[in-house]
Amino acid sequence: MVDLFDNWIKNDRHQRLFEKAERIAKEAKAQVSRTDPEAVFSHRTLKVIKQEKYPSLTLSAAYGGEDLSLYEFLLLQEKIAEGDGSVALSIGWHLGIMKELKEDKLWRKNDFDRLAKEVAEEQKVVNRAATEPATGSPTRGGVPETKAVRNGDRYIITGRKTFTSMADHLDYYIVSAYVEDLDEIGWFLIDRHHPGLTVDKTWDTLGMRGTESDDLVLDGVEVNLSDLVERKSKEKPAPKGWLLHIPACYLGIATAARNDAIEFAQNFQPNSLDTPIAEVGHIQDKIGEMEWKLLQAHSFMYTVARKWDEEPDQRKQMGAELAAVKLAVTNTAAEVVDLAMRIAGGRGLSKQYPFEKYYRDVRAGLHNPPMDDAVVKMLAKQALSE
Ligand SMILES: Cc1cc2nc3c(=O)[nH]c(=O)nc-3n(C[C@H](O)[C@H](O)[C@H](O)COP(=O)(O)OP(=O)(O)OC[C@H]3O[C@@H](n4cnc5c(N)ncnc54)[C@H](O)[C@@H]3O)c2cc1C
Predict the structure, then answer these.
(1) Around Cβ 19, how many Cβ atoms within 10 Å?
(2) Under CATH, what is the fold of the domain 128-231?
(3) Which residues form the Acyl-CoA dehydrogenase/oxidase C-terminal domain (predicted)?
(4) What would the pLDDT profile of 362-385 be if each residue is shown by its tens digit?
(5) Most buried one in 21, 86, 296, 361, CB count within 10 A?
(6) Closest Cα to atom 11, ligand 1: which residue?
(7) Quick one: 241-384 is in which CATH superfamily?
(8) Ligand 1, residues 89, 368, 373: which to mutate, most atoms within 8 A of Cβ?
């Protein structure tokens, strides 16, 4: 079977970094029989992630990182997702956020330096806790109900965040809140051990169960004024290349489904045939369909990533292009997994095979940002603009 990654590993550096992702993917896959039924993120997988110094890879060399390009970031994330999509998505938030903070300089230098040092030296992991029951996806522009109220030289924060990936495993949360005295939305960096913070075990979804995306509850959490590390800009937000870790994740799941479906087709021989089903016309049609869809999705995603890396002056205009990659690749990934399920037949529904998990996991891609309707609207608006 052709390895689809061979096309995209271009040099020795890619190969060296890719081997880190391979080791993480192997460990992640080995844990799926527990993490998926129990809806938990594996401590052992996180240990391997840290041993590989994966959390610091998007930091610049000056901070002890590898300054991953967007292309490299996606390549590694896709490989991890081939092992387990949940692990890739969860750790992808961390790497992406560190890349964003470094490139967009969203924080005061001191605040970024402090966090980057801990990530580099101790492989600490962070994530943004943005989604809330009332706002739904923060990309829709809803104001957080989580509120930060000033009390002298402290802020007191109260609220509930949903969908916080890896919630119980993070070292820091970056929490969005309505900051009352400033009348604007801000972000607080809060240590996981801070009094008043608890993780409420609500995560019980159909797919991506291993992300352990529980609720984060803030009950009168008292922080310093300096913990307000970021304020929502009044300007239109800059396009976020790092968010392509989302399509990379779902593409990795689709690639795993494709590999397993081909292997199944090459080995399964019912007694009505004198060859494995891989020799049958309609199965070959489905394999061919998977191949062109995957080739198209990979080409689109990695071409746009390369443009992001090589033409930084174009980044400001790339919002619609990035969003189109998310929509196209995530939907294609779902189609590929569907084809793999059809190749496996009824066995694909059984927990004895990996297909039903791919089917559940890939579905979650629709509910990561940006959502399809928002992308279509953005593209139409751009097309109709003068
Ligand atoms: C596996 C997984 C991991 C995640 N990890 C994180 C994380 O680590 N941190 C985090 O903060 N979030 C995380 N999220 C949350 C994610 O970013 C979304 O906020 C969440 O999935 C809710 O999105 P939604 O579109 O279903 O919700 P809603 O925004 O509530 O939408 C519900 C429905 O209403 C429609 N709708 C709502 N508002 C509008 C509007 N203004 N205009 C038009 N239609 C609208 C939507 O299209 C949809 O049909 C994660 C989600 C998943 C699935």
Answers:
(1) 13
(2) Butyryl-CoA Dehydrogenase, subunit A; domain 2 (2.40.110)
(3) 247-364
(4) 999 999 999 999 999 999 999 999
(5) 86
(6) 130
(7) Butyryl-CoA Dehydrogenase, subunit A, domain 3 (1.20.140.10)
(8) 368
